[in-house]
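Design job #97: recover the sequence.
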């Protein structure tokens, strides 16, 4: 896929938490920045702002989130794979989410500079929390 995207860095650090499958959707995970609850028979995964996670919750912290700025159509293919493949080529681990309208990629905060270089190196445009375009 040769399509180039604009990605927006969401403010703050995120956490990816693991709850038991029968746990209710937690009220502490309802941030307007990003909140996702995914439930399977084996577990419930919560993605939310790091500072909202109470003590004692199993979680992995220090994630930053990049959101594709455009609204994506369900008929479009290869969008997420094109972005994740280029990050994989640079050895950058990620956690991916999708909403009805777009895709989000979470990367560790320590990998943010390499992620920005990889994305912009492939022609994508990345905008910081304050809306400024990130330039290498």
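Job complete. Output follows.
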């Amino acid at each position: 896929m040769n399509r180039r995207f604009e990605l927006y860095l969401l403010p703050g650090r995120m956490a990816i938490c693991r709850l038991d499958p029968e746990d209710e959707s937690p009220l502490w995970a309802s941030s307007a920045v990003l909140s996702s609850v995914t439930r399977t028979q084996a577990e419930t995964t919560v993605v939310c702002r790091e500072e909202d996670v109470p003590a004692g919750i199993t979680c992995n912290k220090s994630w930053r989130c990049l959101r594709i700025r455009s609204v994506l159509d369900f008929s479009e293919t290869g969008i997420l794979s094109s972005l994740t493949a280029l990050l994989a080529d640079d050895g950058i681990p990620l956690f991916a989410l999708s909403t009805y309208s777009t895709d989000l990629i979470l990367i560790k905060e320590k990998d943010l500079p390499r992620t920005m270089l990889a994305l912009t190196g492939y022609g994508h445009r990345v905008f910081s929390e304050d809306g400024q375009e990130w330039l290498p």
